[in-house]
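Backbone geometry:
***
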Amino acid sequence: MREIDFKGTVALVGAGGKMGMRIAANLTKFGVSALFCENASKGLDRMKAAGYTATSLEKAVKIADFTILAIPDTAIAAVSKTVVPLMKPNAVLILLDPAAAFANEVTLRDDCTFVVTHPCHPPIFGEQETEEARRDLFGGVAAKQDIVIAKMQGDETAFEEARNLCIIMFSPVVNCHRITVEQMAILEPAAAEVCVATAAMFMKQAIDEAVKRGVPQEAANAFLLGHIQIPLAIVLKNTNPFSDAAKVAIDYGFQHIFKPDWQKVFDPDSIKEVIQRMLHPY
């Protein structure tokens, strides 16, 4: 286990959620002094089953040196209005996604530090040492991964302490990349969700369409899953070049599938638009 120098009390808000439970497990594993906050009945049930005791939000945040909001993006604005005034001076608030920070929907205080972090997740071509790690596709349990981190505002020393906490939260971590909130929003939602997740959905629809047109499901799965990996290896790992015929097919695909100006999804106004839709879906 990686040696990490971290001291301080942590309040984990949303501890009974999926991400909250992952973080709670790592805080416990590393012996971090943590208070777990949850108000949803299902979340409380998960905490009880895992042996965690719930602490009231007000009590936990008032004494915490670091408060982690492991809650949905859509709740950040409202919850931060409650949480931030409760924080003691020089405390740190940690967000797990850049959306609310990029949209200026986080309540701030001049005497506190605000940090955003997010896991990179285990890379598709990464080497994992154990079968448990190879099965940990999300990360934060056994698989090695990188994370990104940004300081919204605040004290640099407090930020460095938060960095160590973030490494614990998503352990085992190989590299912690410091970027800006704006750069994190370029990575997610623009690159990771608007582009890559959409491409994943499209690839699944391509498999489904092949089956719809008569290809047996097992054959379609075997053929397309292999043909998903090798183009990624060619493009991202320079494994070997595409054949001339494949290049013709790729050009045809760009002409018939992609809009010529698709890169505009990375423009600041486009990122603002998609984040607003994410934060205010109704």
Observations:
- Residues 187-279 form one domain.
- The beta strands are 9-13, 33-37, 66-69, 92-95, 113-119, 145-153, 173-178.
